[in-house]
């Protein structure tokens, strides 16, 4: 049997933020590591509607660059789902015993959108935790707003009129807030004008 030749690739850390949440100033490369070629049983990269493999931001194929593990089997998924439901039901029971309603824990589409709205408002510095200082993260805010835009596109025709209106309002408000904040930052701090005149 012929010996498999080892291939080499370079791993580049393209994350925008450090582990402390600060914006990175450089993009470093990790050392070159050998990797064995993918086996014939490995999943083939998905093709886009254009017939080409999806591309990442650097222009490379996002699915070819790293070999994804195989998905769990149907039996594994069912077992994990059942275990999750059991754990969730136990938590619901504890919540009910504490005098609260387990319905308050249910995730709805509106609650999901509201959580993204709050995240974006925090990232824009328009809201902050009690006792904390506002912190602006324009990159994060833009990604959150773009996520909502992606949800609007991907859920078209699948939402109730109430959900669709809620999503449109959230997107409208956040896009306006993003424009207001970026314009204010571009103008810089304003100094009050001195009034001169006679009394």
Would you kindly provide a written description of the structure presented here, covering whatever features stand out?
The chain is mainly alpha-helical and 199 residues long. Among the domains are: 73-106; 107-187, no CATH class. Helices cover 44% and strands 3% of the residues. The chain has five helices and two strands. Strands 1-2 form a two-stranded antiparallel ribbon. The model is unreliable at 27-51 (pLDDT under 50).
Count of DSSP strands:
2
Give the proportion of residues in helices.
Answer: 40-55%
What order do the strands of the largest sheet run in, or round the barrel if closed?
1-2
Gross morphology is extended
Order of helical and strand elements: EEHHHHH
N-to-C span = 101 Å
Residue windows where pLDDT falls under 50 for at least 5 positions: 27-51
Which secondary-structure class do the elements indicate? mainly alpha
**So how many helices?**
5
Largest sheet entry: 2 strands, antiparallel
Can you give the mean pLDDT? 77
The radius of gyration over CA amounts to 25 Å
Strand content: under 5%
Nutshell version of this structure?
This protein has helices at residues 62-65, 74-97, 109-123, 138-154, 161-187; strands at 7-9, 33-35. With 199 residues, the chain is mainly alpha-helical.
List keywords for this structure.
single chain; 199 residues; mainly alpha; two-stranded antiparallel sheet; 5 helices; 44% helix; extended
Task: Chart the SSEs and their pairings.
Layout: E1 7-9, E2 33-35, H1 62-65, H2 74-97, H3 109-123, H4 138-154, H5 161-187
Antiparallel strand pairs: 1-2
């Amino acid at each position: 049997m012929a010996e498999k030749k080892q291939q080499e690739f370079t791993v580049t850390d393209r994350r925008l933020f450090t582990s402390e949440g600060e914006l990175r100033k450089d993009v470093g490369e990790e050392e070159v590591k050998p990797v064995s070629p993918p086996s014939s049983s490995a999943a083939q990269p998905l093709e886009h509607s254009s017939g080409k493999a999806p591309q990442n931001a650097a222009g490379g194929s996002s699915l070819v660059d790293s070999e994804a593990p195989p998905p769990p089997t149907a039996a594994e998924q069912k077992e994990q789902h059942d275990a999750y439901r059991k754990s969730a039901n136990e938590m619901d029971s504890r919540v009910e015993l504490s005098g609260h309603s387990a319905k308050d824990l249910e995730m709805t589409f509106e609650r999901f959108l509201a959580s993204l709205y709050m995240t974006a408002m925090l990232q824009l510095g328009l809201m902050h935790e009690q006792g904390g200082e506002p912190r602006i993260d324009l990159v994060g805010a833009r990604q959150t707003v773009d996520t909502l835009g992606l949800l609007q596109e991907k859920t078209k025709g699948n939402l109730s009129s109430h959900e669709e209106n809620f999503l449109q309002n959230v997107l409208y408000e956040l896009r306006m807030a993003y424009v207001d904040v970026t314009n204010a930052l571009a103008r810089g701090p304003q100094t009050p004008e001195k009034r001169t005149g006679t009394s």
